[in-house]
From TrEMBL:
InterPro entries per the UniProt record, alphabetical: Gfo/Idh/MocA-like_OxRdtase_N, Gfo/Idh/MocA_oxidrdct_glycsds, GFO_IDH_MocA-like_dom, NAD(P)-bd_dom_sf
Pfam families attached to this UniProt entry: GFO_IDH_MocA (PF01408), GFO_IDH_MocA_C3 (PF22725)
Alphabetical list of PANTHER family matching this protein: BCDNA.GH03377
Keywords, sorted A to Z: Oxidoreductase
GO molecular function ontology, one term from the record: nucleotide binding
The name this protein goes by in its record: Oxidoreductase
Gene3D superfamilies per UniProt: Dihydrodipicolinate Reductase, domain 2, NAD(P)-binding Rossmann-like Domain
Residues in Gfo/Idh/MocA-like oxidoreductase N-terminal domain copies: 6-118
Species lineage: Bacteria, Pseudomonadati, Pseudomonadota, Alphaproteobacteria, Hyphomicrobiales
Domain GFO/IDH/MocA-like oxidoreductase: 130-264
């Protein structure tokens, strides 16, 4: 039986609950402690999940912690991850991994110097639906992917998030906040990106919060909220990526990929599951039968129905990869290339010029049914 690595979490906000509640689904990891600059938040999460609450400094020093999960706000991801690496611990970060290539390259150098691993969300691409699409591509059902479209559009987080301010500041916005799910999935399906171009606008300079407890409060908007991008992949495929928090409703599918031999309709990369639709050449589009993939099985209520949620799959895969001496799928190289793509899109939106990527990466290994089962704890 694989050794369990001790996990500590820095940042006890909204997203931490998902990590703590879903971690027991997986083998190879054990949640042991949490920390936050707000000790009351750390103590509340610790009590809820029977962990110990620590200061950030004490957690980083703790002898029983092998990997620290960085769930702080994006603006401090780099600083926190740097402290973790310098203390000799592996780090797994929420997305986006960092906010610039310079930050990412520095963390990479620090990790390599000490023989440490860096991993990063999103791990939704490991879900059953997206791995089914990967299987279709890998066995040649679509032929070569030539183009595609992605649409992630809504009207912002001020309508539901209790503290939406950071979503509208540099380091967030729809490309850096939601874009990682789409771009990471595109990379694992098609491969690395060669260059990007984009248009970016900020229609509203401030937003009014309608969620409690701050309903009616106005917050400034200091980053573009509508960005239309174009990605050219190293294999020659060209994909349109439209992101916006200025759209009340639309009729676009989340992701469609067009190949020489067919078309696949990919469910929302923000989630692990969903229906995959496919057509070969001129045949009618059909919904594919559910794949017997364990990370596609609905396991959580969402709205009026059930959804598949296996957040921490990427963390568990990294922990097992450390023990087994193999590459992990939510890798630093994948995360850094996604950051390169996203910051390139934003830079193109500012300058009106094409931006060539400065990084590349290998597609992460597919996570088939057998490999996915091996991630899960035995019942």
């Amino acid at each position: 039986m694989a050794k369990k690595l001790g996990i500590g979490v820095i940042g006890c906000g909204n997203i931490s609950k998902a990590y703590f509640s879903l971690a027991p689904l997986f083998r190879g990891i054990e949640m042991r402690a949490c920390a936050d600059i707000n000790m009351d938040a750390a103590k509340a999460r610790a009590k809820e999940f029977k962990l110990r609450a620590e200061t950030v400094e004490d957690l980083i020093k703790a002898d029983d912690i092998d990997i620290i999960v960085n769930l702080t706000i994006p603006a401090v991801h780099y600083e926190v991850s740097k402290r973790v690496l310098d203390a000799g611990k592996h780090v797994y970060s929420e997305k986006p991994f960092v906010l610039s290539l310079e930050e990412g390259k520095d963390l990479k150098a620090r990790a390599e110097k000490k023989g440490l691993r860096i991993g990063s969300a999103p791990d939704t691409f490991l879900g059953g639906a997206h791995q089914l699409v990967r299987e279709l591509i890998d066995v040649g059902k679509l032929g070569k992917i030539t183009s595609g479209t992605c649409h992630v559009m809504g009207h912002g987080m001020e309508h539901w998030h209790p503290n939406p301010d950071f979503f509208f500041q540099p380091g967030a916005g729809p490309v850096l906040d939601i874009g990682p799910y789409y771009i990471t999935n595109l990379i694992q399906l098609i491969g690395p990106v060669k260059q990007v171009a984009a248009f970016a606008t900020t229609p509203a300079k401030e937003r009014t919060i309608s969620s409690k407890p701050r309903a009616g409060e106005k917050i400034p908007v200091n980053t573009p909220t509508t960005i239309h991008g174009l990605l050219e992949f190293e294999n020659g495929a060209v994909v349109t990526l439209n992101t916006s928090w200025d759209v009340w409703a639309h009729g676009h599918a989340p992701m469609e990929l067009y190949g020489e031999a067919g078309t696949v309709f990919v469910p929302d990369p923000n989630f692990f599951g969903g229906d995959v639709r496919f057509t070969e050449e001129g045949k009618p589009v059909k919904k594919l039968p559910k794949w017997k993939h364990p990370l596609g099985v609905p396991n959580e209520m969402h709205g009026q129905g059930m959804m598949a949620n296996y957040r921490t799959a990427g963390l568990a895969d990294m922990a097992l990869a450390i023990v087994e001496g193999r590459p992990h799928r939510c890798s630093m190289e994948l995360a850094l290339h996604a950051v390169d793509v996203m910051t390139g899109i934003l830079r193109s939106g500012e300058t009106g010029k094409f931006v060539a990527m400065q990084t590349t990466c290998e597609r992460p290994a597919a996570l088939g049914v057998k490999a996915a089962k091996e991630l899960l704890a035995k019942k």
